[in-house]
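Table 4 source record.
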Amino acid sequence: MQNKAVVLGANYYIGLSIIRSLGIEGINVTAIDYSKKDTYGFHSKYLNEKLIAPHYKEHPDELVDFLISYAKKQDKKPVLFPSADPYVEFIDKYLYKLKKYYLIPQNEKGLYTTVMNKESLHRLAEKHNIAVPETVRLNEENYIEKVERIIKYPCIVKPVDSPSFVRKFKIKLFKVYNRDDLINSIKKATDENLEVIIQRIIPGFDDHMYTFDAYVDQYNKVTHWMTCQKLRQYPINFGASVYTSQKYIPELYHIAANFLEAIGFKGFSEIEFKKDAETGKYYLIEINARTTNLNSLIYKCGLNMPYIAYRELIGEPLNPKSINYDTNLTFWYAYEDLLAVKDYIKTKQLTFLKVLSSYFKPKAYAIWDIKDPKPAISFMNSKFKHAKNKFL
């Protein structure tokens, strides 16, 4: 019997994309979530088993026991896939316990948390001569004066721990325009015991954002990779990809692959960069230490990252591969892109005609799949119910 794949989280399209990527290869896939509500990934035809487990944040020890109990019943170690940052943090915290029963790419406890933490990531990047945006920290003497002298306004107040910040404020950061904004934003975060840093905004529209998506094997070598260019984000300017094209940027390989290999990273990683519109220099913004929202695009371009990880971890690795040409394929999360477009046009960052012309590209959809339509139908039903309840 083959090793099962266990996907943590099915209430967002990242988990759904992992389920599809593995199921289409004939892998026996189990999805685990803490609730059935709005968990549209449970409706995928590629799913063999769906389980409700304790909440990763509220009852983490119980979730560990649940996972271990499940694994003990299997003939072979399952391969474990997190679909969101909180699940990565959970796996990292209990890594040594879980690795006794599951196949997980990373061996070093704490490394995933280190690269997800903006403060420790930037210090690590600086150590390896990777450019990061100029940063001022709250423990520095006269930090407000430093902000106004070195970084200047507008700038951003950015969380060290993004998942906790997003859970609280539903946005990724605060953009500030003057001293009062800065002081108030810092107070909002610190009142919630959330650590923040202050950074310069790298000049350039959202299409100056790029990603390096890669798999790093057990020998710390980047074996599979491709690069992408963001076109639109939501929330606009400082959000997640909603319309992103594959774009071959060879120089990112030399920056990112060397960095990932040097720090001992293993597994799937997506590094986000921003290209300075004035200097052309690439700045490291953040690392996603998991499958990302671009997974359906990466798959359509020819790299099935979850399956690549699965095959390596069961001892049957696939041959190295990179996408070293432009495919013109574009990822589209229609629901949030339409919200983003409204804001881009409202703020005059884009015109209607500019947006319209961008849609004439072959697409990889976030949720919709004609061969597996039920998750999309479930998603739309859920959104319709929320809208109906809101206006009644």
